[in-house]
Amino acid sequence: MPYEVTPQDASWMLSLSSLPEAVSITPLQGGWDNTIVLLRLSDGNQVVLKAWSSNTVDEVKRVISRHLHLHAFSVPTTIPISLVNGSLFAEKEGVAWTLLPYVKGGMLGKDTVSLRSLGEVMGKMHAIPHSEFFPEDYRMGFKLFDKVVQISKENGIEDEFVDILERESSILLNAYPSCLPLGVLHGDLFPDNVLGRDGTVTAILDLEEAWIGPMAFDLMMAFVGFGWENGKPNASRWRALAEGYQRVRTISEEELAELQFMHRYATMAIACWRFWKHNISVPDEDLSLRHLEMVDRLEVEIDFRGYIE
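and the corresponding structure tokens:
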């Protein structure tokens, strides 16, 4: 559950840094699990305070290491501000806390200029060396599919989506391509995980779902997050994303042939996560049908190759 950050929390965390006291605390958009707030400091500067209440301390260490890895290879991201003891996080009552630089601009837009920038940054990220901090299993993929189906059956959750998920999981797993080029992937490239300003990506955020996997998958996840409008795929957005990406790295023929498959897998991953989050993990009647937006997209065939040829 998200943690409610108090003025006392902010004062405690700032006391561990060389930063001055906060004069205001403002909640920020983004993130379904952890809490992020904007601290306006007495010297006029601003920083972001994040309470990682939904991650273990060890998980937070790994995520921070992923951000450091991207930063080391000039992929725009945010890394925590060092505390006076040299650590990049503090721990209180089993929860990790970080202070982060505030990046102006807000979430990246969905216009073609912004998506070319996103594609280019993705191409750079996919090309960086692999690291031990990135798993080879996708946390929102087949393991989550199996978990949701099992929990639903054990708890008598009767929902048509569970049947769809079980069927789609089997089909996708049996047809999963095994020889596509692998790279460092974000895994959840939606607008709330990408900051931008004036059509340029300024920071890739939230690497909790990052992994080593087929680079084509990340492209399709970005299209799931940015490429649809009013229930329909937007060809110009995909074209812009692909153009930016191919400034850095060419999409191979083998990858082009699997884009439709990877789009379906990415769509199911988001549908499954939403069902799990809002119907099992933290039930919320107001959000319990969010997964259906993704289910409806499964009926749409998209000629990704044709859009860029």
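(Above: one complete record from the training split.) The longest strand covers residues 35-41.
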